[in-house]
Amino acid sequence: MDTPIALVTGASAGLGRALAAALDRRGWRLVVDARDAARLATTVDSFSRPDLVTVLPGDVTDPDHRRSLADAVGGRLDLLVLNASTLGPSPLPRLADLAPEDFEAILRTNVVAPLALAQLLLPALRAARGTVVAISSDAAVEAYEGWGGYGASKSALDRLAAVLAVEEPELRVYAVDPGDMATDMHQAAFPGEDISDRPAPESVVPGLLALVDGDLPGGRYRAADLVPAGAAR
Predict the structure, then answer these.
(1) Do residues 160 and 205 lie in contact, with contact meaning Cβ atoms separated by under 8 Å?
(2) What is the spatial distance between Cα 28 and Cα 95, in angstroms, rounded to a whole number?
(3) Is the Cβ–Cβ distance between 40 and 14 less than 8 Å?
(4) How far is the C-alpha of 226 from the C-alpha of 205, rounded, in Å?
(5) Separation of alpha carbons 225 and 198, rounded Å
(6) With contact defined as beta carbons under 8 Å apart, do 131 and 79 qualify?
(7) Where in the sequence numbering do the catalytic residues fall?
(8) Do 81 and 157 contact (CB within 8 A), yes or no?
(9) CATH T-level topology, domain 5-225
(10) For residue 191, what pLDDT is reported?
(11) Is the pTM of the predicted complex or chain greater than 0.85?
(12) How high is the pLDDT of residue 190?
C-alpha cells in the first residue's frame, strides 16, 4: 500500500503542528506550510521522520505559494487540512470598528485561500478519494462580541465545505470546530489574559484522527464529539 500523504497548512504551531506531528508518528508523508519559516523548520526537526516531510514556508494567500504546495503534493492526496488562519486585529474590534480592509484580509486568508488551494488539489484528492478537513470555530455559529469578522469568515468556510461535500461525493469533506485551545491565536484574542486553563491543541487530535479514520458523512462536527472513548484528552 502506498504511504498516505497529507497537506497541513499552518503547521508551525497550535493545532496544525499537533496534527502534523501525530500524522508523522503514523508514518504519513507530509507537505506542511506556515508563514514563519524558522518556526516551521524547528517544528519539523522535532518530528520522528523529517525525511518524509516537505517544508514550504509561505502565505496561503499567495497564488504562487499555493501552486508550490500543489506541485509538492503531486498526483495523489489522501488528506487536506485547511488550518492556516488569521484572527484579524487584536484586541478584537466590535463590528462598528472593524476596518473594511482588515475584514477583507481575514476573508482572503480564511475563505478565499482555502477554496483556491482546494481547487488546485481536487485532481489529487479525487485520485485518492481523499478527505478534506477545514478547521472552523464555534464563532461560526455563536455570536460573540468582537468576533464578527473572524466568525463570519469561519461561517463562510463552513458553507464552502458543505457545498464541496455535495459537489464532490467521492470525497469526504468536513468542517471541524476544535473548541477553545491554548494557542497563540487564542491568546491574541484575549491579550493580557491567562488562557492556560484552555485545553492543549494535542487534546483535539484524537477527534480529528477518528474523523480521518472513520466513515462519517461529510458535514460539520465538534472535535469534542469525535474523541474516541478512552482516548487521551
Answers:
(1) no
(2) 42
(3) no
(4) 10
(5) 17
(6) yes
(7) 150
(8) no
(9) Rossmann fold (3.40.50)
(10) 85
(11) yes
(12) 82
Residue ranges in the chain assigned as alpha helix (H): 14-25, 37-45, 63-73, 100-107, 113-128, 148-167, 184-189, 205-213
Enter the C-alpha cell of residue 40. 516551521
pLDDT at 152 over 70: yes
Copy the grid coordinates of residue 14: 497550535
CA distance 201 to 103: 26
Instruction: Using alpha carbons, select from 134, 179, 172, 167 the residue that is nearest to residue 153.
Output: 134
Residue the block writes with cell 503542528: 17
Q: What per-residue string of b and e applies to 48-78 under the rule 16 or more CB within 10 Å gives b? A: eeeeebbbbbbbbbeeebbebbbebbeebbb
For residues 4 and 49, the answer to whether their CB atoms sit within 8 Å is no
Residue 58 amino acid letter: G
Mind listing the pLDDT tens digit for each residue in 35-82? 999 999 999 999 999 999 999 999 999 999 999 999 999 999 999 999
Domain positions in the chain are 5-225
Element (H, E) at 219: strand 219-222
Q: Which three cell numbers stand for residue 216?
A: 462519517
Q: Hunting for cell 467521492 — which residue is that?
A: 170
